[in-house]
Write a structure and sequence with these properties.
10 strands; 8-stranded antiparallel β-sheet
């Protein structure tokens, strides 16, 4: 099976390249690629950054205007989706969600370190193949509170664009 390849261009920091796994999370990958192709992520930020854990983005502009889409079914084992056995190791992409297992929409996170407690609880759907230096630079950002958000980078970390380079 061909794995789609996506490049995440992060302003002033560089590019992270990710391979996506449609055989593990088909609807999740389909939704993510639809958003990438529609230029949805351009101008959005990584709004939650926790070094030694993960970086999260894909739902807010730099002034914290909400930008989400409709939700999709959570494709992870605890939600009855047994095909997804991707572990939450460093570099894995996974879908953010609320306590509702079927609330994932546009927000995703990239693991900065292994987090086995997330395995089978969130829809992991890809893995970085390049750009770990960019991941580390984002994780090193100074963070603080912004409204009810915690772990927000003090200087916005902006996704300039995402592009599908191989389908």
């Amino acid at each position: 099976m061909n794995h789609p390849i996506v490049k995440i261009h992060v302003r002033d920091l560089g590019v992270m390249t990710a391979e996506l796994y449609p055989e593990k999370a088909p609807k999740t990958v389909e939704n993510f690629l639809k958003l990438v192709k529609s230029d949805f992520y351009s101008g959005l930020i990584f709004h939650r950054v926790i070094a030694g854990f993960m970086i999260q983005g894909g739902g807010y502009t730099a002034d914290f205007a909400d930008r989400e889409t409709g939700s999709i079914k959570g494709e992870f084992r605890a939600n009855g989706f047994m095909d997804n056995d991707v572990k939450h190791t460093r570099g894995v992409l996974s879908m953010a969600r609320t306590s509702d297992p079927d609330s994932a929409s546009s927000q995703f996170f990239v693991m900065h370190a292994n987090a086995p407690h997330l395995d089978s609880q969130y829809a992991a759907f890809g893995m970085l193949t390049d750009g770990f230096d960019v991941l580390d630079a984002i994780a090193a950002a100074k963070t603080g509170r912004y409204g009810y958000f915690s772990d927000v980078p003090r200087t916005p970390i902006v996704i300039d664009k995402m592009e599908l380079v191989e389908e």
